[in-house]
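Recall that a protein's primary structure is simply its ordered list of amino acids. Everything else, from secondary elements to tertiary packing, is in principle encoded there. The following example makes that idea concrete.
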Amino acid sequence: MLYPLVFKEKAIILRNQGYSIKEIAKTLNIPVSTSSTWVSKVKLSSDNKKLLAQKKILGQMKSSVVIKEKTRQRKIVSDVEAIQLVKKIKSNRNLDALLCSILYWAEGSKNCSNVGFTNSDPKMISTFLKLFRSAFDLDESKFHCLIHVHEYHNDQEEKQFWSKLTNIPQNQFFRSYHKPHTGKRKKPNYHGTISVRYYDAKIAVKINSIYNMYVQSIGV
């Protein structure tokens, strides 16, 4: 598209005033490519270079804010949809057994002599134990735990933390395993890793069977 010569002259004037190529295009209502071609030979003063650099940084900051807000809004919508979905799910012992077996297959020990579940995420451990206790008739004395901690951890404090979280007495905890620490960094709010074991072969076989039969039923 041909533009009047006055447009190009205005573009050069704006460029000399410190306008960016995009700003010129928006001001004159022309394509960015045209704006770029017209001002390509304009030599910017040091002050204008600094001004454009500042505008670029400001633009990046604004863009970051916009992206963060869009991400926040998407999460809000996703959370609302998730709440509506969860409300439609009626919890029962069979469903708890299935969910428990799926979690176990993802993070469990996969053997049939005991049920072993290891993780460092307190929410994951709590969720598994809640489902496990709901789905099966358990003897609480068959639970035993082993925590893996770093040298910077206070062993007794971590045992107290995991004991309270799992509702398993400390006298059912094995001697902690102390992992060597590289010294590079300490994870905030990191309580090490816990391995929860339930020593009952019958339950171990059952939880494995539930998962295996389920995946067969859906054609996997």
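The beta strands are 115-119, 143-150, 177-179, 193-198. The first strand starts at residue 115 and ends at 119.
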